Amino acid sequence: MAGGGKEVREGQGVLNAERCSGCGIKLQSEHKDQPGYIPAQAVQKEIVICQRCFRIKNYNESSSITVEQDEFLRLLSQIGGKEALVIHIVDIFDFQGSVISGLQRFVGNNPVLLAVNKIDLLPKVTNWNKVRNWVQKEAKDAGIKVEDIILCSAKQNSGFDRLLDAVAEYRGNRDVYVVGATNVGKSTLINRLIRDYSDLDQELTVSRYPGTTLDMVHIPLDDGHSIIDTPGIMYPSRYSELVSPEDLGAILPDKPLKPAVYQLNEGQSLFFGGFGRFDFIQGERQSFTCFVSGRAPIHRTKLEKADELFRTHGGELLAPPARVNLEKLPAWTRHEFRIPKNSRLDVFISGLGWIKINGETGAVVAAHVPKGIKVMVRPSLI
After folding, report:
1. Tell me: the pLDDT tens digits for 123-169?
2. Three-state SS at 192
3. Of 15, 154, 209, 344, which one has the fewest beta carbons inside 10 Å?
4. CATH number of the domain enclosing 171
């Protein structure tokens, strides 16, 4: 192929000996959601940039790119040796699933701002001071030392002014690195930072982009520093990484959660569509509050009938997901927990939601979800 040695390998969408002029990533035209994607027809251009750099250059927008966990941690470890302000964005709906545990080991002594997104999903009567205190404790337990915690909502565009004030307060003479898992709203935050801090415009030339390694994209700021857009990390322990695209909308809520309270006797179970199951195995009659997407319908049954019900009606009565998608998921694994008396705890299922234990008399409970999904007991968020 003419034009600087560009070559597309037939049927594979791989561009040989060609890297993005904007970020330095090796170009490919097969996977839109992977680093370096470029439409095959675009390789004919004199200056070739990947789709993500193109969107930053022409629209002041960054799109979400993901990498596997090991690759992400390798990229993350580069930050420790730089002068940086780190913005770690997490999802309040999936906090333990989206937080980067041990972040401090990688970023060293660089200051960290914790941007807690999707607070619009919590009930409107939520005590925000308690949420902030809860986040602070959970972040500490995850090995993260934070300079400030900002509760925000990308969807409602709330809290971002406070975040920008914090960036101005803590940035000093540093670049800004934005890190986070997939589906936490990182691109929305990056795009807001671009609009507020960068002088990018339609006339920007590709040469303004400094070359970078792999798929970190440097977005130039007015003062000569940069916003560094890192790829989103994929945690396979999150339900949102397992489900099909059509089922993703069923488990990720798009409106405030409506707590569903169930009075259960021991020996009763709750199904959340066909995504998971909660068993009340032992204890006095008590209430349990479910915080899950309204598009994952809850079905109550007897524990003794639960296995057979799922076997015969999973993907049908117990749906979504449909049976064809349910069969693609790993087999369910059982996680049992003993809840002490007078404790305030949630059974948390990463990417699906949580069940708050309301009783004060103690209980034995269990959760059933596909193998590999993170399930844990944590202090109650609400």
Report:
1. 988 999 999 999 999 999 999 999 999 999 988 889 988 998 999 89
2. helix
3. 344
4. 3.40.50.300
Task: Looking at the structure, tell me whether residues 47 and 187 fall in a common domain.
Answer: no
Judged by phi (left if over 0) then psi (alpha if -120 to 50, else beta), residue 110 lies in beta
* Total count of domains within the chain: 3
From CA 349, how far away is CA 286, in angstroms rounded? 21
Q: What is the 3-state secondary structure (H, E, C) of 180-226?
A: EECCCCHHHHHHHHHHHHCCCCCCCCHHHCCCCCCCCEEEECCCCCE
Do both 127 and 247 map to the same domain?
no
Q: Any residues with CB less than 8 A from the CB of 244 and at least 6 apart, and which? A: 321, 325, 328
Per DSSP, the chain holds a count of helices (H) and strands (E) of 10, 21
Average pLDDT over residues 200-225: 52
The neighbouring-strand residues paired with 282 are 364
The closest of 92, 178, 102 to 128, measured between CA atoms, is: 92
The contacts of residue 199 (CB under 8 Å, 6+ apart) are: 220, 221, 222
pTM of the shown model? 0.82
- Average pLDDT for 209-218: 51
The two beta strands, 276-282 and 332-339, are unpaired
Model pLDDT for residues 309-352, shown as the tens digit of each residue: 999 999 999 999 999 999 999 999 999 999 999 999 999 999 99
Q: Which of 206, 222, 129 is nearest to 168 (CA)?
A: 222
Its sign, for the CA torsion 191, 193, 196, 200, is: negative
- Give me 270's structure tokens: 């709750």
Q: Which two tokens stand for residue 262?
A: 């169930």
**Torsion angle in degrees (nearest 10) through CA of 203, 209, 215, 221:** -90
- How far is 116 from 209, CA to CA, in rounded Å? 29
Structural domain for 47, as ranges: 8-53
Q: Is the same domain home to 144 and 221?
A: yes
Residues 126 and 173 in one domain: yes
Average pLDDT, the chain: 85
Alpha-carbon distance 346 to 349, whole Å? 9
Q: Name residue 361's amino acid.
A: T
Query: Are residues 40 and 84 located together in one domain of the fold?
Result: no
Are 217 and 252 found together in one domain?
no
Are 356 and 270 found together in one domain? yes
